[in-house]
Each structure stands twice: as structure tokens, then as C-alpha cells.
Amino acid sequence: MTQTLDSRALLSVNDVITAAPSSSCDAELARGPWDFDLAPGYGPGASEFDVIPTPVTRPGQLPTAYQRMSDDELHARIRAAKEKLGSDLVILGHFYQRDEVVQYADFVGDSFQLANAALTRPEASTIVFCGVHFMAETADILARPEQHVILPNLAAGCSMADMADEDSVETAWEELMEVYADEADADGLASVIPVTYMNSSAALKAFCGRNGGIVCTSSNAATVLEWAFARGRRVLFFPDQHLGRNTAKAMGVPLEQMPMWNPRKPLGGNTEADLIDAKVILWHGFCSVHKRFTVAQIDQARAQYPGCKVIVHPESPMPVVDAADASGSTDAIRKFVAAASPGDVIAIGTEINLVNRLAAENPDKTIFCLDPVICPCSTMYRIHPGYLAWTLDGLVEGEIRNEIVVADEVARDAKVALERMLAALPR
Ligand code: 13P
Ligand code: SF4
Fold first, then answer.
1. How far apart are CA 408 and CA 284, in angstroms?
2. What is the domain class of 290-369 according to CATH?
3. What is the CATH T-level fold of the domain 32-158+380-410, as seen in this structure?
4. From atom 5 of ligand 2, which residue's Cα is the shortest distance away?
5. Where does [4Fe-4S] cluster bind (predicted)?
């Protein structure tokens, strides 16, 4: 087993998937990136009010010349453009980004760190975000107005972000306001505070800004819930039910007081009494990568490596988080690995690109993914070096390609909720 893991760590996820499609959770991933990218239209994971770039470069429309370039040529172009653009360009990369791309990032981090990183280079005229759509929107909201934000492939959305749209959240909010209309205001607390996970459209961040709410990331979710409970009796948490449940449970909120809100049902499928008794109302959303982790995988890892340590991301289901030795954001996982001793065996429940990178960076430890099937974040994976080369070449030629522009009124309200988030430091 160690043999397989070690050799896997030396190969990029892309190499493994293309060599053996059956090793991945989605055989579609093994199709060439240009075919694979034909599927979705503009902006999965985007706010519906985003200003759509013109002409919009739809997924699959990467110029044929770039589709045909060899890897060597693409990488030579990226290096040359980066060199030419110098400090006028900053590239941000999420921990889940594929190695072929993340190697060019000036900052690599988790969602919270990258939101801060967007603020640290005001002299750069362009931020190229090698992550997903909601991250690029956030950078656009936080950056100086003159700065441009580029998402190299507009198909890099987030399926979880798409699970809560603005209309459904507005409807839920109106229904909740009716349920709580008669509540006495003796304690000066609001009836409910909206909290959106960073993994949501700018429109939902704006909704939170307008309604006394806040954004959280997986690294500061507990601080954010404390902030919310200092201001309200309850929280409406969207879109990730698992992060909401795991965080609130660790803070002592009983499961009976965490009803689920199903946007397809009246009152989210709850009774008025449930909602009055609720402390955290959880939206019916999840991450397709993290929902794959199971307690059986943890049992299997422990059976194979007695004494191994298990850490999982809090987007994983509650029984998995409960069975693990620790849980935390991508950066917390990185720190957990760094703090482990040589010879330790660590099973990780998070996205495969990060797990493989940690394995490669820590050859003195045995590190592997709990999920035996390779399952990258298939949307982040869409940032192929071809798209990076094409957008950077555009900058060299004075053309901004695939710019992400959040409409002014959305950005104004979303910034309120994001600034509250930035002040809520991870513990
Ligand atoms: P963090 O970067 O906050 O750990 O979140 C992981 C994730 O799913 C990003 O989409
Ligand atoms: Fe969205 Fe999951 Fe990918 Fe994160 S890992 S960007 S939550 S699909």
C-alpha cells in the first residue's frame, strides 16, 4: 500500500486520472480538458448579477492554438508572461488547485487566507485567481476598484455554491420572518442572523450584509457563530449543512435544535414549533468531494495502520468528523501534518490535490487520502495550464480575458458581510 501511495504522490492527479480513468470518481474527468469544459454555461457558482464579460469566453472556447500547444510550450508561455508582468500581476491559488497550476501562485492558501491575500498587493493591477468563481468574486469585492480579477476558466464554479440561490434564500427568509413575527424583543437580539459560508455567490454575501449577517470560512466558522449568537437567537446557515452542523455541535448546540431547511418544501419541511425552538437552521447543501468520506474508511485506515492519525475537513458528514482525531480547514490540515512527527501515519479526509502535495512535501511521514478513489474538486480542476497561459498572454497584449466583475450594489452589501468575516479571526 505504501508503495502505491508513494508513487501516486509523485504523479500529478491529472496524470493519474488520464492514465487510469477508472481510478477517479468521475470518468468524465479523463476526457481532454477542452471536451470536459464544453458542458456548463457561464458562471456556475456566480452571482446572477455579475457583469458577464464581453465577449464571454464560454467554457470550451479556449482558442484552438492553445488547445493544441504542448505542455512545455504552455509552461514556457506562463513563465514568460509572469516575468514580463512582474509586480503588476498577482496569482492566487487555492490549496486544492492542481500542481501544474499552483506552482505559479504567489500566494497559496485556504479561502480565508486568500481573501486576505487579495488585499495585500494593492500595487498589482491584476489578480488572477486560480480557484473557483466565488473566490474570484470575493477578491473583486475586496480589491481596489481599479484592480481587475481574472478567473482563467469561467467554468470553475462550485456545486455547493449553486445549492443556495438568492431567490430560495429570500423566500426562506420571508417565511422565517413570518414565523418569528410575534417574538418579543426583550433581550435586544434579532430573531435570526443569516450566515453564509464563503462558498456562495456574491449575491448571498450581499444578502447577509443587508440583513445583519456575516460570511464565514471553514477556518473561522466557530468565531463567526459566536459573533452571530451575540446578536441573534438563531442562525440561518447556508449553503453547507455539514460545516454548520459540525461547528454548532462542537459549540454545544443540540442536534434537535438544528433543523434542516429544504428549499423545495414549505417552511423548509419544518413545523413552526421546530423553527421557534431552533438555534441553527441548516441549509440542505453539501460538497460533493467531502460527502464521500465515511466512517468505514476511517475504520479501514485504523485497521491497516494501528495508531494512525485521522484528520478531516469540516465539510465532511458529522459521523466522519466525530470519528476522526481532528477536523479543520485546509490550512489547519496543513498545520496538523507539519506538527506531526517523522514516521507518523496520517489519513486525511479532504481534496486529493492537497493530500498528494502534503504527501510529497512530507516524505518522512506516510500520508494518504481516506477515499481510495481519486476525487478532485472537479470544478477547480478546470483551471488547466492552457487557460492560465491564454489569460496571461492576454494581459501581456493589454487584453483582460475572463474578468470577474461583481455589480456595484451587490459588491457594496457583500463587502459589509466580508469585512465582518475578516475581523472574525480563526481560533
Ligand atoms: P477552505 O479553504 O476554507 O478550507 O475550504 C475548502 C473548500 O472547499 C474551498 O472550496
Ligand atoms: Fe466547492 Fe467542494 Fe470544490 Fe470546495 S471542494 S470548491 S466546496 S465543490
1. 29
2. alpha beta
3. Rossmann fold (3.40.50)
4. 377
5. 158, 287, 377
Instruction: Tell whether residue 198 is among the known ligand binding residues.
Output: yes
Question: Looking at the DSSP assignment, which residues form a beta bridge with residue 216?
Answer: 197
Side chain identity, residue 308? C
| 197 is annotated as contributing to ligand binding | yes
- Residue located nearest, by CA, to atom 6 of ligand 2: 158
- Rounded to whole angstroms, how far apart are CA atoms 327 and 325? 7
Instruction: Specify the ligand 2 atom closest to the Cα of 131.
Output: 6
Ligand 2 binding pocket includes 287 (Cβ within 6 Å): yes
Q: Is the CB of 160 under 6 A from ligand 2?
A: yes
User: What ligand is nearest to the CA atom of residue 163?
Assistant: 2
Q: What is the pTM of this model?
A: 0.92
φ and ψ at 127, to 5 degrees? -110, 120
Specify the residue with its C-alpha closest to ligand 2, atom 3. 377
Give residue 302 CA to ligand 1 midpoint distance, Å: 26
In whole angstroms, how far apart are CA 95 and each of 5, 71, 111, 307, 360?
Answer: 19, 22, 9, 27, 14
Decide whether any atom of ligand 1 lies within 6 Å of the 241 Cβ.
Answer: no
Q: What is the pLDDT along the chain (427 residues), one digit of tens a residue?
A: 333 333 344 467 877 777 777 777 777 777 767 666 665 554 555 555 656 655 555 555 788 899 999 999 999 999 999 999 999 999 999 999 999 999 999 999 998 889 888 788 889 999 999 999 999 999 999 999 999 999 998 888 898 998 999 999 999 999 999 999 988 776 889 999 999 999 999 999 999 999 999 999 999 999 999 999 999 999 999 999 999 999 999 999 999 999 999 999 999 999 999 999 999 999 999 998 999 999 999 999 999 999 999 999 999 999 999 999 999 999 999 999 999 999 999 999 999 999 999 999 999 999 999 998 878 898 888 899 999 999 999 999 999 999 999 999 999 999 999 999 999 888 7
Nearest to 316 by CA among 296, 294, 347, 299: 294
Residue whose C-alpha cell is 495502520: 305
Q: Which atom of ligand 1 is nearest to the CA of 313?
A: 4
Q: Whose CA is nearest to atom 7 of ligand 2?
A: 287
